[in-house]
Records
---
Amino acid sequence: MRDRGIIVGGLILFLGLITFPVWYNVTAGSTAKGPEPKRPEQEKTCVAPVGYMRTSHMDLLMDWRDEVVRRHNRKFTAYDGKSYTIGLTQTCMKCHTSKADFCDRCHNYAGVAPTCWDCHIDPKLVQRSTG
Amino acid sequence: MSMDRRRFLGVAGLSALAIAAQSSLAALARGRQGAGAAEAPAATRWAMVIDPKQCLKDEGCTDCMAACDKAHNVPHFPESAHEVKWIWKEHFDKAFPEQGSLYTAEAFRDRPILVLCNHCDNPPCVRVCPTKATWKREDGVVMMDWHRCIGCKYCIVSCPYGSRSFNFFDPRPRIKELSPDFPTRTIGVVEKCNFCEERLAKGQRPACVEACREKALVFGNLYDPASEVRELLRTRYTIRRKPELGTNPEIYYLV
């Protein structure tokens, strides 16, 4: 049993190495952290309750798309009776002004890449290219 | 009460006849109502009248095209094979191949004629689209749903006017000035003139019509007898591009 020191030392080193990601996240404090999308400061209500928007905003956007493109309807009456013009860049982005600070934060966290922005234009992109 | 066989059969036959008559009458009544509802005429049919004489006053003018490019983020590719066209100038003999003889053509040879999607009443592109990404709206606009286009290019082949273009490359870097209110397209999607559907929804006229200084483009409702287009069609002689194909184009050219 002359090798005990080496064996135990090796085992400790091995355990330390394979649990490194856990320690890394614990020390960085990022394990319990969810995505932190930046909420709009001015407006307090969205076109649907927050819970619904959080889980099903993609369904709402698909409905909006079909309403405008297929049924030529550009008016949306919200759950609280308020009326909105249907539009991703024209309505959503009026309050949620930054794609990077709002959309991307959750999408990156969840590892999803929606194709909306292949065509629809991030208003910030235009400001940067002209300003 | 006793009933012999002959009488029983008679009563049964009459009852069956009465039941059949009732249900078929009801079906007829429903059918008439249904037909009436379907026949309710649409209130609008958008169309355009182009006056080439006015348009050719300044042959170098590109105001309408510039307005369209800006409104719809139309990209510009240097190679003609990759061109994306919504409204553009075509040589007279290409725009109207069946018009003009050897000698009449002299007056128009190499003169540019303004062309765009004809928003046909009987659009062949709609018939061939396998995904229903393009269709004719009730008001006559031949619409496209870019979300649904799979880029098969059938519509490009079927359109006799060359009004449809394919994005062989990413169009974004080729757009001079991005307007955030209208989406760009993406690689692998077909695009064409949408008759400024997004402006019509707001009660505005198409961007090209508004941009023309010579008032060479007139836009209006064909179903309204008092509209400017109807007035022109009533008082002036007009031709359409390749009407013999039966597509029923709704862009008229004043002679």
---
Amino acid sequence: MFEDYDIVIGLEVHAELKTKTKVFCSCKNEFGSEPNSNCCPVCVGLPGALPVLNKKAVELTIKAGHTIGSSISPIAVFERKNYFYPDLAKAYQISQLERPICVGGSITLDSGKVIRINRIHLEEDAGKLVHKNDKIGTLIDYNRGGVPLIEMVTEPDISSAEEAVEFLMKYRSNLVFGDIADCKMEQGGMRCDVNLSVKKKGSSVLGTRTEMKNLNSFKMVQRAIEFEARRQVEEIEAGKTIVQETRKWDDNRGRSFAMRSKEEAQDYRYFPDPDILSVEISEDVVNSIKKTLPELSHQKKLRYIEELGLPAYDAKILTSEKYICEYFEKVLDKVKNPKIVSNWVMTEVLAKCKEQAVESLEEVISVKNLAYIINAVQDKEITRINGKELFEDACYSEFDAEEEAKSRGMVVKMSDQDLEKFIGEVMEENRSAVADYKDNPVKVENFFIGSLMKKTQGKANVEKARPIIHELLERSVR
Amino acid sequence: MDIKSLSIEELVKKIKSKEFSAKEVTKYYLANIEKYKGKNAVLEVFEDAVEIAEDIDRKIASGADLGLLAGVPVIIKDNMLYEGKKCTCASKFLKDYVSQYTSTAVQKLIDQDAVIIGRANMDEFAMGGSCEHSAFGACKNAYDDTRVSGGSSGGSAVAVALDMCAFALGSDTGGSIRQPSSFNGMVGLKPTYGRVSRYGLVAFASSLDQIGPITKSVEDAKLVLKVIAGKDINDQTTADEPLVDSKPVNLKGLKFGVISQVDKVAKNSKYYAIYKDIEKKLALAGADIVSVDIPEYELSLSSYYVIQPAEATSNLGRFDGVKYTTRAGDVSGINDLYKKSRTEGFGDEVKRRIMLGNFALSSGYYDAYYKNAKRVQKLLKTKFEEAFKKVDAIIMPTTYGEAFEIGSKTKDPVSMYAEDMFTIVANLAGVPAVSVPCGKGESGLPLGLQVVGKHFDDLRLLEITKEIQKEIK
């Protein structure tokens, strides 16, 4: 029966902006500080305190709009959304209703399907309730209160859990690569609300939708959508009607529960905040912010394939996270062979990374150490086996790989002088072969490379040796 | 020691030249506060007042260069924050609230070495026109214990009138400085919106609120305005407009506007003749009296009573019993805590406005009420700008008449709201307006003349008002 239905999904995604200070005061925007230490009269809503808009937050919102091709409003208005909740110090949230900063935009899925975006607006985050035992009760930490938050709202264009997750990953990667938000979902830096309804296949009439709030991992989004779509279809098939309501997703029990119906929904009594002047956003500002937008994940991916010649699979993995491609590009800077660097990063470094959660691959192994190991193996300064051993030991360690390779006697470094000396010796020992060069140049050249490697027990650098041998042989026939 | 007749400037001069000590001056005013305790104008005398005055004296003795208000005792309306001191907004809800920081306006006074000696009674959260809506009892008129002091800055006006301080600060959302000043024969200035920072003023209706001085003379008002005015990084709505000193003006050739729609209403006042007589005197002195048409004036009272409660209801949401306000006991759950705390904490008038405001902002009513009211506000601003292309100032009564009897309007909120008939239009348009005494009513109580000026032309408005006063004395 499920295949008889279409799922219609719209997402609302909140992301905390990466500003130094909060959106309406100069308190630090920082996760994990002592409770209520990043607070002032403004963000705890003391009487008489007034908001002062952080321009940087507006700029980052515009930048977020640029990543999805929004048009930017020439004027942005801030409104008060009034409701009572202990984490909301002023009993209103400063948000945007009628004139959001970013209007429209879209994200294209790998399938080519375009998901339209309705808007992105800027607002302030609320504090956080900390529920203790019965004796202490509930405490409030206002550190998060006033942290700048952007809310992105899609059109109802998404039709499966997979599409929803792909869309979210792409949007998240835009924000992270654009240096707009860190989107650390485990810290609540990105949260997702899912609006979902189902309708008979082919029907143009939308079903009644429900909303699930504050899903804070992609996995949760996936499971919540799957559950809710199934539930709605089953209800309809059983002859029941879907109630428009807000539902709470219980990830532990793998199901959602009705929280409040539409009738119980709050009237937020929005009106323009008289304390904040409307913000004029000039075309110049919009354009200059556009210029600050760095290369985004999908653009990098394309470049890796087209310019670096990497396979699509490599490009996808390397650009899946900002910290991976930042590291990749740094190593590439020192090694100059994209595929070899890609192989090392993907198979060796990322494998280590899974063992411990890391934010930067430099924590696994420094760019300098990895670049040395790759180059040394490539140049045959050390053997591949030694290179691998060195890599294993260099991970999560402080040592300098180059020094370590020397002290372990792995380096079979041959000076140019020695190399020339060995080449001279093999040529002296095989005079008849030299004489044969005129007739069989390729064969003879390869013969001498082979002889040199034998003589040096494989320690000579072929790339360096070949031109020298070639030159000497050419000279002999002149 | 004749302090009462001194201007602030003269008082400062005498303190600086050690003719009086700041301590003596402060003690003089404190004695008057004690003497007129029955008026209920002052809610608290700050216990460090004399100490601060002594500090000023020490500084003077040491030859330090002191500010424009050196040693001048000031009373502030009880909705302005002064760090470490209580700030109650005359509400039971905030009866124990201690300010965590100092408002910009008060800080500017302190920076000029003023001595803040106490906080003045007011209508709860500045909602009212009689000072009867104080949780700590009504403040009585300076000259008649059966009459109201006016409001909401009633305590401030009475304190100045009875010499309990050299001047006071009030706040004006719809007439709250000018009406009590008129009722107590004082000078009350509501500056241009954006002139004085609202940072640290407990917000009532944010797009209308403005702090201003209540003084004994226009000259004093000028000095205080110069001290408290200015752009504040903590208040985005303060303007960058410099406060320009005005050249002395001559009534000859000045044009005074009389709004015909205001005049129509003023005709209903017993004292209409007094205001017509003022027009005649000004004309005699060589000024032109011009009729100005602002039809939107007729929508001002209804628009005001939409915007003001709407903004108030949002501003007062933070008083919820969770944080710094008095919390109701014996509650079950958070919604019960909100409900009981707010029911116990707020007075009737505040509750009335919260309900009005919520209604005006409700979905389905927002466009009809709040949006339309904001449209009227915008139109009024434009109309006043246009009018001031033709006239130098607009004159009108401050109130219908003398201070009314205590209890006479508390049962009828609409008649109380109509008290603001002549004053709210300046708040809606954002223009500066000053009330000065202009005669006496039947009971011998003061009446006020309101002079309204151009946006950011506050000092010229005061200069013109000074000239008017000379003619009508």
